[in-house]
Fold each of these.
Amino acid sequence: MMLRKETLKKDKAKQLFSFRYALLTSFAYLCTKYVYILIFIIMKISHIEHLGIAVQSIEESLPFFTDVLGLECYATEVVEDQKVKTAFLKCGEVKLELLEPTSPESTIQKWLDKGNKGVHHVAFCIEDGVANALAEVDGKGVRLIDQAPRKGAEGLNIAFLHPKSTAGVLTELCEH
Ligand code: CMX
């Protein structure tokens, strides 16, 4: 009789131990997950804002986009500090930004001179701010071209990331 009671007591203690163990491991798992989310918080990209397309002449390239693809060119703008003239077309939610150099010193002219043409950069629309996104990618070791957001075409806050640390795609972060 005494032995049976003793065994029952031991079983109960074992059950309590495994229950507490399960509770503790679940708690530890949730904590780890929460801390992981906090540390590795990832920027929110809503969509591709635009594709930058380098052309030698907007006048010569535009008819393909308007007359063949049927897209509407809704704005042109000269961005002095980037030494480019831009033409914007809308394609659903995404824009195409044609970029024509306005000076031999323009990064676009230099890129064209190396024999490149076509898609020059991809711009992502950041929901929670370019400054936050820059701090985040900087922390992850990505090489920044712009250390802080600056004004780009259409008055957007923008910043570029170097193609050497973005899988070869010149990447622009922007916010409305
Ligand atoms: N896409 C992918 N790679 C590119 C690139 C592009 N658009 N432009 C340059 N590179 C590569 C080059 O091929 C080169 O690679 P290799 O060394 O393997 O040949 C490397 O980048 C050169 O890098 P760098 O010597 O640091 O710089 P560059 O003088 O060639 O300038 C860059 C390149 C990206 C830093 C410069 O173009 C820049 O600052 N761009 C951001 C601003 C910009 O593009 N403005 C124009 C658009 C403005 C607007 O949208 O309004």
Note: The radius of gyration is 28 Å.
Amino acid sequence: MKKIILHKGREKSLFRKHPWIFSGAINSIDDDIDLGETVEVFSADKKFLAVGAYSPHSQIRVRVWDFNQSEIDKNFFEERIGSALNFRKSVVDSKIYNAYRLINSESDGLPGVIVDKYNDVLVCQFISAGAEKWKQTIVEILVKQLEPTAIYERSDADVRQKEGLKPIKGMLYGKIDSGEVIIHEDNLSFIVNIFTGHKTGFYLDQRENRKIISEYSKEKNVLNCFSYTGGFGIAASVNEAKHVLNIDSSEEALNISARNFQLNKINDDKFTNLKADVFTELRKLKSENKKFDLIVLDPPKFVEGKNSLNKASRGYKDINMLAMQLLNDDGLLFTFSCSGLMTPELFNKIIADAATDAGVNLSIIDRLWQSGDHRVKTSFPESLYLKGLLVKKG
Ligand code: SAH
């Protein structure tokens, strides 16, 4: 096996079982290592540290498969996938949910591999050189262990470019007539387009938060900003919200949203789907003196890199300030950030600053994050990206 030797002192993160080796940590490297090839990693004093996948184009030059000197072969992936599926059994009740994340990359010991289950169809992303190399093996194991009707690949994420891989999507196994799959979350149903939807099709990471929002929604006048295909709005309506106003800029998402409201048998007079820019529309609603009992803010990732953190923070503050001004006394705001670079502390501060500028008193009722199937290993805190707060006016 080809070898990589680290600079003195750069083995420390590996002792904490953090699975990334950056280019700057590497002292010497064998010649001619292929994209995704398995390499052994040693400390400066030649102690074995890990085996991982080599990625010559990425700043993250090696992603660790194992901290033991094990063979990386089909058996290895069978064992890792088996234990990822077992973990889901303890965090998701598959009797009431038929869509959830089965494999969450580094936190399941499979860097670059994401697998989501949508009823009996699996949607995968292979977003690292190592994951790409083992794609076929992983697909075979998924077929054997889960017997899906189809497996579709959505590796059309930009991050692949950093790994020297082209974005790609298409069928990996089986057949489906259309990209649309219907999923069930307890008493909610959703149409998901796995061919064209965001990420792998749906915001499965918000499943627990949909449940929480639904519990607060009875008889409330709800404003659902960045509504996508209606997730939070439907959760609110099914639990008898008085009315839900969904706002999104994507016509395609709003079309599916309308069909999702129908699918859940919600009367037309109980909801409105509005195609608009949230920043503009919130100002308009404010100028019209509109008020809401419950507001959801779930914007897209504003932070693309460290350089955009300041600009993104202003964006978060702006929409939160406007939303706070649209709340009735006693109103509730569910506010999220899915940017990994936004820490929970910074997000809390932005919300506090927004409240000051909006001239409102707010109390924190709950802290929110991604559902447990979007596994977060304590040794890999980077996988916790979704954070939110439930705050109440007053
Ligand atoms: N809350 C959703 C997910 C939101 S994803 C859910 O739980 O399913 C972010 C959404 O914001 C996308 O649907 C995108 O179309 C929309 N969007 C992005 N920028 C926007 C803007 N400026 N105004 C309105 N919608 C926007």
Note: The pocket of S-adenosyl-L-homocysteine is lined by residues 203, 206, 226-229, 231-232, 247-250, 253, 277-279, 298, 300 (CB under 6 Å).
